[in-house]
Amino acid sequence: MGKTVLPDARVSPRYSGICTFCRYPRVEDVLPENFPLDWAIYGVASDLGVTYRSGARFGPRAIREASQYVKRFHLAHNVDVCAALSMADGGDAPVSPYSIEQTLDLVEEFALGLSEQGGEVGLVDGSAGGISATKLFAVGGDHSITYANIRASYARQGEPPGGLALVHFDTHLDTVDVLWGEKYSHASVFRRAIEEGYVNPKKMISIGIKGPLNSADDLAFCLQHGVTLATYDEIVRPPSGGLATAGTSRGAVNFAMLDTFVQRVGNHPAYVTFDIDVVDPAFAPGTGTPCPGGFTSAEVLDLLRRLKGLNVVGGDVVEVLPERDPAGLTAFLAAHVMFEIIALDAARRARA
User: Fold this and answer.
1) Is residue 345 within 8 Å of 38, Cβ to Cβ?
2) What is the pLDDT of residues 218-246, one digit of tens each?
3) The domain 21-351 is classified under which CATH number: 3.10.50.40, 3.30.70.270, 3.40.800.10, 3.40.50.620?
4) 50-102 pLDDT, tens digit each
5) Global pTM?
6) Do 115 and 40 touch, CB atoms closer than 8 A?
7) CA–CA separation, 292 vs 278, rounded Å?
8) Which of 160, 145, 257, 263 has its CA nearest to residue 207?
9) Which 3 state secondary structure label does DSSP give 42?
C-alpha cells in the first residue's frame, strides 16, 4: 500500500472520483499512521503578479485534472514514489484578488499550517523553530506565488544560514526591482527572495534563460550577486561546442553545469522552482509570457532527473495558462514536472 494511499485504478477509473493532485488523498483523508506528511501539495489560484497575459489563476484546477494520469512508479529513478513518501493534496490557499502582498501573506500562513491539519506539528526535533517533516509544493498561479512558498519553506527548514539553495527553471531572470510601483510581481520574485535572505544567490542556478532582454542591465543583479546563469544555448550546445550561432544546429543536452552545481550545493536544503515558459511554446503553449526556442518536454524531464541527490525541501510549478492551450498539453506537462521534482526526494531517500 505504501505511505500514500491511492484509489485502485482498476476499481475507480482515473476519470472518476474527486479530482486531487495525482489522485493523492486530501489532507483530511490521510490515514493517521501516514502523518506527518512528507509533502503537502497545494494550489495558489492567483495571477495578480503577471505583466502580460493573465489567466494563470486557473492553473491549479487544470493541473489537478491533467494529473489524474500521473502514475506512482518512477522508471528512471527505479522508485515507487507513493511507497516512499506520504503525500496529500492540501487544497487551495486563500488569496486576496486585489492585493499581491496580502495574497503572499495569506499563502505563507496557509502553507505554514498545512502539516498541523493532520493533527501534528511535524517538527523533527519537536521544538519551535525546528525543521518540519512536511515539505511544501505550490502549484500556481503566476511566479509571484513562489515568493510565499519559499518564505514558508525557509521557515520550515529552520531558517538555514545564508538561505536556501535554488534551482530555477525559466526563460526569464525574474530579478527586476520594481514595475509600475510594484515590488512583488512575477518579474521580481528572486530579487526579493535574495534581498530578504531566503535564497542564497551563490547557491542559485537559473536554467534555460533565453530570448531578447529589455537591456544588458537585466543581467546586472544576477552577476553582482553570484547567481549561476545556465542559458538555453549553454545547456543545449551545437555539436562543435560553445554557444549556438547562426547556421549551427543544436546538439545534445549538456549536463556539466547542472552536475557541477549539484555537487557544489551538497546537502544544503534546496528549492526547485519551474516556470513552464522555460519549455518551447511548441510543447507548452499555455503560458502568459511565451518565448520560442526553448527546451523540449523530453529535455526538461532529463534535466530534472539530473538533480538526483539534491536535498530538495520545497518546490513549485507556475505560469500555466490553460485558456491558451485548449488541448491541455501544458497542464499535462506541468503535472509531470511536479511529479519529477517530488520524485527527487523519493529517490534520495531510497538511496540513503
Assistant:
1) yes
2) 899 999 999 999 999 999 975 555 555 55
3) 3.40.800.10
4) 999 999 999 999 999 999 999 999 999 999 999 999 999 999 999 999 999 99
5) 0.94
6) yes
7) 9
8) 257
9) strand
